[in-house]
Specification:
heterodimer, A: about 200 residues, mainly alpha, about 70% helix, B: about 260 residues, alpha+beta, elongated
C-alpha cells in the first residue's frame, strides 16, 4: 500500500532525480503525465491502441533524452511535444507506406472523404445519436491535416491555452488562433445539421 | 473595431483581454453571422471535451521494463549504420583531395597507401543527398606498400548500393535544434559546423557531427526523440572510427 506523504516532489525534482538514473522518479513522472500523453496520442492518431504504443515510445524517448532536457519548458510541455512529434512521424510513415503500397481507397473506405453523417431525423435514441456524433467528430478530427488536428486536440481535448500551444508547437500565437478557427470551421462543416440535434439529444 | 471570425474563437476560449472580449461579445450579439459561428464552434468545443477519455492501461511497467534493457538497435538503424560505414569506406577511398581537383581521377590506391596525416577535411557536398561513388578500380588491385598498415576490410565496399544514404526527419523548433546540438556532443562527437542563431532565424540550419560509429545509433535514437526530421545524410567513415553525419534542421517560424 502506498504511504501518503505530505511532501510531494515537484516535477523538477523528479526530473533531476531521473536524470541521475533514478528509475523510480521517472515512474512517478509517468504516473502523473501518462493520462494526458495517452489522450493526446489517442486523439491525434484516432486509435487508442496505436495511441498507447506511441505514448510508450514517447516516454522511452523522453528517458533517453532526459540528459538534454534543459527545463526551459515544463516537463509536461516537453513530454507532450515529444509525444506529438512521435504521432506526426507515425502518421507520416503510415502515409508513406500507403503510398508505397498503392492502396486504392474506395468511396466506402473510412479514410475516404465522404463522412457518413448520421441523420438525426431517423429515430435513434438520444444516447445512440450522441455516440454516433462522437464517432463523426472523431472521424472529422482524423480528416483534418496534422497541423489543424494538433491545435484542436491541444486546445479542446488537452485544454492548453493559446500561449502553451504556441510554446509547444513552436509557432506564433496568432497562428494558433487562426488554426483553431479553421479547424473548428472544418469540423462544423463536416457535422452540419447533426451537431444541433446531438446537442438537444445530450 | 472589426471582429474577425478567428476573434470569435479566441473569445470563446477566453484568450482576449477584457476590453477586446467585451468588443467581441457586443459584435456577436449584433451580428447574426458571428453569432452562428459562435454557436457552432461552442458546440464543437463541448463535443470534443465530452469525448470519452481513452481507457488506456498503465504504461509504466512496459516502459520501465524497456528502460532496464539495453537500448534497442532495431532494423532500420542497424541497416542505416551499416550503410553509413560501408559507404564511408568507399567514400574514403574515392574522395578527391580538395586542394588539387585534378587528383579526382587518381587511382583509389594512391589514397590508401598514403594514409592521411591530418588531411584537410573535404568540403561537404552541396546537395543533401550526396551520391556515393563506387571506386573506379577493383579493390583487389589496390597495391600495398611493404610497411603500410593493412587497409580496412574493403570487401564490404562491394556491398554498397549506389543509392544515397539518407535518413529523414525534422526538428520542429529552435529549442529542439539546440537540443540536437547538445545531444551530438553528448554522444562523443564534435560539431565542426555549429548551429548559430542566425542560421535558425533563416528557418533552416545544418548540424554536422563527427561521432564514433558505435555511438551513431544512440545519437539517432536520441534525435528521434525530438522528432520531425527533414533529412540527414552521412559522409561516411572518416578516420579513427568516426562517422560524419549531416543533419539538416528546419526551424518552423510559422505554419508549414
Amino acid at each position: 500500500m502506498a504511504l501518503w506523504s505530505p511532501f510531494r516532489a515537484s516535477d523538477d525534482e523528479l526530473v533531476r532525480r531521473a536524470r541521475e538514473g533514478d528509475v523510480r522518479a521517472f515512474a512517478d513522472l509517468m504516473e502523473r503525465h501518462q493520462a494526458r500523453v495517452l489522450q493526446l496520442c489517442a486523439r491525434f492518431l484516432g486509435d487508442e491502441g496505436l495511441g498507447e504504443d506511441v505514448a510508450q515510445e514517447a516516454f522511452l524517448a523522453a528517458w533517453n533524452a532526459l540528459g538534454g532536457f534543459r527545463g526551459d519548458s515544463s516537463f509536461s510541455t516537453w513530454i507532450q511535444r515529444i509525444a506529438l512529434n512521435r504521432c506526426r512521424n507515425r502518421r507520416m510513415a503510415d502515409r508513406r507506406r500507403h503510398r508505397d503500397q498503392h492502396v486504392v481507397i474506395g468511396p466506402s473506405d473510412e479514410d475516404g472523404p465522404d463522412l457518413d453523417v448520421p441523420d438525426p431525423g431517423v429515430g435513434p435514441d438520444g444516447a445512440r445519436l450522441a455516440d454516433e456524433v462522437d464517432a463523426v467528430i472523431e472521424r472529422g478530427l482524423a480528416d483534418l491535416d496534422d497541423e489543424h488536428r494538433a491545435v484542436l486536440v491541444l486546445r479542446d481535448v488537452q485544454d492548453l491555452d493559446y500561449e502553451e500551444i504556441a510554446t509547444l508547437l513552436g509557432i506564433p500565437r496568432g497562428t494558433v488562433k487562426s488554426r483553431i478557427h479553421r479547424a473548428r470551421a472544418a469540423l462544423a462543416a463536416v457535422l452540419g445539421a447533426t451537431l444541433p440535434a446531438a446537442e438537444r439529444a445530450s | 473595431m472589426s471582429v474577425s471570425h478567428a476573434d470569435v474563437d479566441a473569445w470563446l476560449d477566453g484568450d482576449l483581454d477584457p476590453v477586446r472580449a467585451a468588443e467581441v461579445a457586443r459584435a456577436v450579439d449584433q451580428d447574426p453571422t458571428l453569432a452562428a459561428i459562435a454557436d457552432r464552434h461552442r458546440a464543437i468545443r463541448l463535443r470534443l471535451r465530452a469525448l470519452p477519455a481513452p481507457a488506456g492501461r498503465d504504461l509504466r511497467a512496459a516502459v520501465l521494463a524497456r528502460i532496464g534493457a539495453p537500448r534497442p538497435r532495431v532494423g532500420l538503424r542497424v541497416e542505416w549504420l551499416g550503410l553509413a560505414v560501408a559507404a564511408g569506406a568507399v567514400l574514403w577511398i574515392a574522395w578527391p583531395a580538395p586542394p588539387a581537383p585534378s587528383t579526382a581521377s587518381s587511382p583509389a590506391a594512391l589514397r590508401l597507401v598514403s594514409p592521411p596525416v591530418a588531411p584537410p577535411v573535404p568540403p561537404l557536398p552541396e546537395v543533401h543527398e550526396a551520391r556515393v561513388p563506387r571506386p573506379a578500380a577493383p579493390l583487389a588491385s589496390v597495391p600495398s606498400e611493404p610497411h603500410a598498415t593493412p587497409p580496412l576490410p574493403l570487401p564490404v565496399a562491394e556491398e554498397v548500393p549506389p543509392a544515397d544514404v539518407v535518413l529523414t526527419w525534422a526538428l520542429p523548433d529552435a529549442a529542439d535544434a539546440w537540443m540536437a546540438h547538445r545531444l551530438a556532443g553528448r554522444a562523443g562527437g564534435h560539431v565542426p559546423v555549429p548551429l548559430g542563431a542566425g542560421d535558425l532565424d533563416d528557418g533552416a540550419a545544418s548540424l554536422v557531427v563527427e561521432v564514433p560509429a558505435d555511438a551513431l545509433s544512440d545519437l539517432v535514437t536520441d534525435l528521434q526523440a525530438l522528432g520531425t526530421v527533414v533529412r540527414a545524410g552521412t559522409d561516411g567513415l572518416l578516420r579513427d572510427g568516426l562517422v560524419r553525419v549531416r543533419i539538416d534542421v528546419t526551424v518552423q517560424t510559422d505554419g508549414r
